[in-house]
Design goal:
This protein is mainly α and about 425 residues long. The chain is built from 17 helices and 4 strands. Helix 3 runs antiparallel to helix 5, helix 3 packs across helix 10 and helix 10 runs antiparallel to helix 17. The protein is globular, with a radius of gyration of 25 Å. The protein binds protoporphyrin IX containing FE.
Length: about 425
């Protein structure tokens, strides 16, 4: 047996990485702050997994995006060709780009789901008003990531969708034209727009999202997780500490999400289509990304003129009002602060969600411009090697996920034993 070294017998104490760090950095308050967070366990506990899932997907987007940046050219002459090269020549370029495209869809999807669950459980009520407001900023930033990224391949669909999308704020009185100019870097969608969108996509938006996320997480860490409106402490079976228990379930979900993104990327690789030609007329059925479809559908339904006012302008102003309403919701919903559900606000919110869902389904049913699959990516999906690699990946993921759950149960057992000790 190895002999323990101690100060008392004059020998040097054993240095572990943790003790080495503790002697140099004051970690105590940080560890105590991190250990404070607990998660209530009840029949809707799954909703607390969504924020972490969004965070994991964002980290994955940063990683795949950083790899894409090694080959992508943000210019009119180079954008399409560089993406084509990533898809056909760069080793695993098709996989990384397809993971970035699918990761973006899942990221926005999970953020929207997290938004809806926090909305319906009224998690914005006192003292979480600012957590919610930072969340609304995160939602808008996530959508802006999608909008700016869509143009970057400079294909027919992305060019015309951006042309239409950047035109919409032009109807706002007084400042409309300035906003369009600011977005496009000129009057038209050109190479300057690509450079501008690229800068937003890889610098301004990550900084904005990082800052909002820091505020969001710091507040959550301090406040802990809320119970959905209508639930009391008696409905919670347990309160798991985040570190060493609930965090392990989170990690399991992240592993499964990673597997899902890789699987989707292999079986349904991202398409590229044809290079944008600004001189050609816009093809039929141009659509934005799926998460803007309900707004796009609504703008299509509003007549060109309503009571002498421009229809598009009214649509944009309506969206602006809804955004302001959502941002200030914790201040408007006084009943939730008193642990009650306001009938008027609940009806209004449900009506808005139902209208958005109906418009979304309608837009999804309208045929759009389809892209041909890029050859090499399609070939790669057909290889038996991909199937074997995927099977191996899933075996590792399932093994790790089961192991993490075992570890969580063991940590919970130790915690309960310690609690029972007199
Ligand atoms: C990039 C996007 C986002 C990330 C990474 C993120 C991250 C997180 C994390 C890790 C949590 C703690 C665990 C959980 O409840 O899931 C959380 C909680 C929360 N988030 Fe987000 N979030 C994002 C967007 C949003 C949005 C769009 C909203 C709503 C507008 C929002 C509102 C909240 C609220 C109110 C809580 C506290 C929940 C409670 O105490 O029950 N978040 N978020």
């Amino acid at each position: 047996m190895r002999r323990r070294l101690s100060k008392s017998n004059g020998e040097r104490p054993r240095v572990t990485p943790a003790s080495w760090l503790a002697e140099r950095v004051e970690l105590g308050p940080l560890v105590a702050f991190a250990a404070k967070k607990t998660v209530p366990i009840h029949r809707h506990t799954w909703i607390y997994l969504l924020g972490g899932a969004a965070m994991f997907l964002f980290a994955l987007q940063v990683a795949t995006g950083a790899l894409l940046m090694l080959y992508y050219h943000p210019t009119e002459a180079g954008a399409f060709q560089s993406v084509e090269r990533i898809m056909t020549e760069v080793p695993f370029g098709w996989l990384v780009r397809s993971m970035h495209v699918w990761g973006a869809d899942l990221f926005v999807g999970i953020v929207v789901l997290h938004f809806l669950t926090t909305l319906l459980s009224a998690a914005y009520r006192k003292p979480r008003e600012m957590t919610w407001m930072a969340g609304v900023l995160l939602l808008f930033t996530a959508l802006a990531f999608g909008f700016s990224g869509y143009l970057l391949p400079w294909n027919e669909r992305s060019y015309f969708a951006t042309l239409v999308g950047t035109q919409i704020p032009g109807t706002i009185p007084v400042v409309g034209e300035t906003i369009v100019h600011l977005l496009r870097g000129g009057d038209q969608v050109t190479g300057d727009t690509i450079t501008r969108f690229f800068a937003a996509h890889v610098m301004f938006l990550p900084i904005a999202l990082g800052a909002a996320l820091l505020v969001h997480l710091a507040l959550i860490q301090g406040q802990g997780m809320s119970l959905p409106l209508g639930m009391t402490e008696r409905d919670a079976r347990d309160h798991q500490p985040f570190f060493t228990e609930f965090g392990l379930t989170d990690a399991g979900v992240w592993l499964v999400l990673f597997g899902l993104v890789v699987t989707l990327a292999v079986f349904l690789p991202a398409s590229l289509g044809t290079r944008a030609d600004p001189l050609q007329p816009a093809p039929e059925g141009i659509k934005p990304e799926w998460y803007f479809l309900f707004m796009f559908q609504m703008l299509k339904l509003i007549p060109a003129k309503v009571l002498g006012l421009e229809g598009n302008m009214l649509g944009v102003m309506f969206f602006g009002l809804v955004a302001l309403f959502l941002f200030t919701l914790p201040l408007l919903d006084r009943a939730a602060a008193r642990e009650r559900r306001s009938r008027l606000l609940t009806t209004l919110l449900l009506a808005l969600i139902a209208a958005a869902a109906a418009l979304q389904v309608w837009a999804l049913m309208t045929p759009g411009v389809e892209h041909a699959e890029t050859e090499t990516a399609a070939e790669a999906t057909r290889t038996a090697r991909s199937a074997v690699s995927l099977a191996l990946l899933w075996a590792v993921i399932l093994f790790l996920a089961v192991y993490l759950q075992k570890l969580r149960r063991e940590n919970a057992r130790v915690r309960r034993l310690q609690a029972e000790r007199p």
